[in-house]
Amino acid sequence: MTETLDDERVLVRKHGSVGRITLDRPRAIGAVDTAMVRAIAAGLRRWREDSDIDTVLLDATSDRGFCAGGDIRSLHEAISAGNRDAAEEFFRTEYALNAAIAEHPQPVVAVADGITMGGGIGLAGHAQVRIVTETSRLAMPETRIGFTPDVGGSWLLAHAPGRLGEYLALTSDTMDAADALYAGFADHFVWRKDLPGVIEALETRADPDTPGQLLWLFDETPDESDLVVAREWIDDAFSRQTLLEVRERLRELADEPRFAGSGRSPAAALAALEERPPTSLAVTLAAIRSARALPNLRAALDQEFRLVMWFVATQPDMLEGIRAQMIDKDQDPHWSPARLEDLPDDIVGRAFAHEVVPLRH
Question: What positions does the domain Enoyl-CoA hydratase/isomerase occupy (predicted)?
């Protein structure tokens, strides 16, 4: 049985005891807008109320990825037109869904195959069982577009080993399957060719094993993550108190021959930071560190909502970043301010003090 719940881009199917919710927007790699978020949430509610369902499966029809994130083109249009209410409604609806996935009574299995970024992390990252494959590419890329990690991403980043949270958030670095497992964004590595077998096993199992136990039958061990070795310089640099100190330490480490070479390196991280908008970097660094002291995901979502709406209401960098990355695609954003040294001393305090109507819990 296949149904759509108010949006043809979200397929809701029941196979035995598995309730399946599939993103069917392949041309946009599953990018979600408000209507899609509502349809996914409606599917979750349906399966919550169905006593025959013992597992929920989140996946996508696209060969390129699970979900590339939120539909930031639509977001850009709304904010540019002065329709902040539409932007606020999108974020409220999306964050409610993130929490609902994490708290769903039946285990949620998410297949983060291919590109899974931003809003895709919000869907897959809070599931009880998170699958990655050899094609998986995960990231929280918000600082690339003048924004800050949201959809509960700050919570996941804050609980990554060492200072990986700061590193991944500030640089927007992309993780492969091994990285995602090491950083705590995934639980199981399965070869893409074996995914149909995983889904069939979930749908036909007659034993009481949980989905997580069943996944061990398919689980493989990828090569060791590059992040393991990189932790030495990442923890050193990204534990510094201020952004200027982080940057200076990266410069020092970049001169050490043992950290030279291609791939992840202090020099590459430094280059990434120098391309990012200073305002996003400052607020994001504070957000990740603040999230470490928060009690749960919902508290992190509350904090993210406050910061996100501050960006929407007061900061030009978000529109400029989306323009440069997604609209004009000139890859030449003009940040305001353009240099870390020009950031107002109270910029982070202003972001955290922004007044919003709290999320409904």
Answer: 18-352
Closest CA to 236 of 162, 174, 172: 162
Question: Cβ(229)–Cβ(170) under 8 Å?
Answer: no
Give the mean pLDDT of 134-159.
Answer: 98
> Which of 119, 122, 125, 165 is flagged as catalytic?
119
Q: Could you tell me which CATH class the domain 2-139+177-215 is placed in?
A: alpha beta
Q: Give the pLDDT confidence score for residue 208 in this predicted structure.
A: 55
pLDDT-derived band of residue 360, with 50, 70 and 90 as boundaries?
A: confident
> Considering 70, 114, 122, 153, which one is annotated as catalytic?
70
122 tagged catalytic: no
pLDDT category, 6, cuts 50, 70, 90? low
Of the residues 59, 142, 179, 236, only one is catalytic, namely 142
Tens digit of each residue's pLDDT (9 = 90 or more) over 200-225: 999 988 665 788 888 999 999 999 99
Q: Which of 120, 121, 134 has the alpha carbon at shortest distance from 188?
A: 134
Coil/strand/helix, residue 56: strand
CATH number of 226-352: 3.90.226.10
Confidence at 44, pLDDT banded by 50, 70, 90: very high
Amino acid at the residue 236: D
pTM of the predicted structure, to 2 decimals: 0.96
Pick the closest to residue 243 from 108, 347, 334, 135 (CA basis): 347
Please answer whether residues 156 and 125 qualify as being in contact, where contact means their C-beta atoms are separated by less than 8 angstroms. yes
- Dist. CA 282–CA 277, nearest whole Å: 9
**Would residue 317 show up in a list of annotated catalytic residues for this protein?**
no
Catalytic residue among 7, 88, 113, 150: 150
**Residue 150 known to be catalytic:** yes
> CB count, 10 Å around CB of 63?
11
- Candidates 230, 228, 222; CA nearest to 262 is 230
Domain boundaries, the chain: 2-139+177-215, 226-352
As a whole number of Å, the end-to-end CA separation of the chain is 32
Block residue for tokens 């819990």 = 361
Tell me whether domains 2-139+177-215 and 226-352 share a fold.
yes
- Is 119 known to be catalytic? yes
55-83 pLDDT per residue, tens? 999 999 999 999 999 999 999 999 999 99
